[in-house]
Design goal:
single chain; alpha/beta; Hypothetical Protein Ychn, Chain: A; 2 domains; elongated
Length: 149
């Protein structure tokens, strides 16, 4: 090997080692941002499926501290969350989600159509005063990923 090739090999090796150390330092120094996800629920027959997805999401990321979640409900699905007729399992899950910090938004337009208020829903709900679809769009504009299982 001539001197030029030897010098080029040394410079290349040093450059690769430096780039690798910088990449490792960047990965170690910058924690990944907390994921934000909004679930959209309007179909009454998907209530248990969506609630299961949310629980799987929380479990899959290592707990509620590792993700910011919201659930926006409108249309026929909202009836499943009326406190007078809610399934006990649904009530327990909603209570757990509320404690975990999941935003539980009920469409104000749907509540008016069903002639109910927040007091008629399971505890933990807030009103999506401009409507469920508007709340979904607001959350997406804030960087939330949209899921509609």
């Amino acid at each position: 090997m001539n001197r030029r090739n030897i010098l080029w090999s040394i410079v290349s090796t040093l450059g690769a080692a430096f780039a690798a150390s910088r990449a490792k330092a960047a990965t170690e120094a910058a924690p990944s941002p907390k994921l934000k996800v909004v679930y959209h629920l309007s179909d009454a027959e998907k209530v248990n499926f969506v609630l299961g997805n949310i629980q799987n999401h929380i479990d899959g990321v290592g707990g509620p501290d590792h993700v910011t979640l919201a659930l926006v409900i409108h249309g026929p699905a909202l009836k499943a969350f009326h406190s007078a007729q809610a399934n006990p399992d649904v009530g327990k899950r909603i209570g757990d989600f509320s404690k975990d910090g999941v935003e539980l938004a009920a469409c104000d337009n749907t509540m008016k159509a069903q002639n109910i208020t927040l007091k008629d829903l399971l505890p933990g709900f807030v009103s999506a005063e401009k409507g469920g679809v508007v709340r979904l769009a607001e959350l997406q504009s804030q960087g939330y990923l949209y899921l509609r299982p």
